[in-house]
Amino acid sequence: MDAIQTVIVPVDFSEASSAAAEAGLGLARRLGVPLRVLHAVPPMVVMSPGGIAVPSDTWSSLLDGARQKLAECVEALSGRGVEVASALRETASATAIEDEVAEHPSPLVVMSPHGRGRLERLMLGSVTERTVRRATCPVLVVKGDAGWVANGPETILVATDFSDQAAHAADLARELAVALGARLEVAHAFQGPMESFRAYGVNPAMDFVTKLQREAATAVEQSVARLDQGGVSVQGRVVEGPAASAIAERAAAAHADLIVMGTHGHTGLVHLALGSVAERTLREADVSVLVVPKPR
């Protein structure tokens, strides 16, 4: 699969990152690509009035411990049909991920939504959030039961707002569906302008709203036709409500194993604003989400 040639899994040795590593291994095996396990050790300064740096011998011991934990992680993943390598970087976690991505062709980052001590339903971990925002490659955030990786997903839900970015994400979803033997469902979340009008005491005519709904349905049909080129079953659906909630609810109703969506489309730049549709979907969905950035 040309679109993905390397799987990179950042680990912090927490239970959540171990689950992501297993998912990354499964995807690498099914796609026939190598797996790289990444751990970052950020520079440390002891909190004190003077900001004292960690002594060099203590730092060396810390790095030795990190190397040992990383070696144990690689050993647990090795011998299972995938070429596994590792990297230890002495820098902040998000920076380490960016640097690792820059050194490998067509990578896919697979990571947990949070690390140690994070509440998944309430917030994204800061590393995951930054990685998704600044991503130059697809990022799979593993949530819920990732058992679908071993046998392949049955259904992949593709969220679209009909932007070029959404089309790019849909193309990758189609490649994955073909490679993994899944069916595709293209979903567009329609939220009519009623609330905006009602804020000014105006109720829009129903024929106007109906026209918008029909246009959305036609656009979904066109998206389905573009993706339905053989080798995969494709269906489309318009769902109503705020985009993130509607997509998360549709994924649950369709028993989708994976949601695929762009980082930004008609809703603005994810790099500039917290609370994008992609980020809200990551928070609200119970299933894994693959976030696809704009091609460069």
Instruction: Identify the CATH homologous superfamily of the largest domain.
Output: HUPs
What is the structural class? alpha/beta
CATH class of the largest domain: Alpha Beta
The number of helical runs is: 10
Strand segment tally: 12
Number of domains: 2
Identify the overall geometry: globular
**What is the first-to-last residue Cα distance?**
19 Å
CATH architecture group name of the largest domain: 3-Layer(aba) Sandwich
Question: Biggest sheet: strands side by side, in what order?
Answer: 5-2-1-6-7-12-11-8-9-10
Taking all residues together, what is the mean pLDDT? Answer: 86
Question: Rg from C-alpha positions?
Answer: 21 Å
CATH topology of the largest domain: Rossmann fold
Show unreliable segments.
Answer: 116-123, 267-275
Q: What's the helical proportion of residues?
A: 40-55%
Largest sheet: 10 strands, mixed
Order of helices and strands: EHEEEHEHEHEHEHEHHEHEHE
Strand content: 15-25%
Structural overview:
The model is unreliable at 116-123 and 267-275 (pLDDT under 50). α4 links the parallel β6 and β7. Helix content is 42%, strand content 20%. α3 (93-102) runs parallel beside α4 (126-134). It is built from ten helices and twelve strands. The strands form two sheets. It has a ten-stranded mixed beta sheet, sandwiched between helices. It has a two-stranded antiparallel sheet with strand order 3-4. It has two domains: 1-142, HUPs (Rossmann fold, 3-Layer(aba) Sandwich), CATH 3.40.50; 152-296, Rossmann fold (3-Layer(aba) Sandwich). It is globular. The longest helix has 22 residues, at 56-77. By secondary structure, it is of the alpha/beta class.
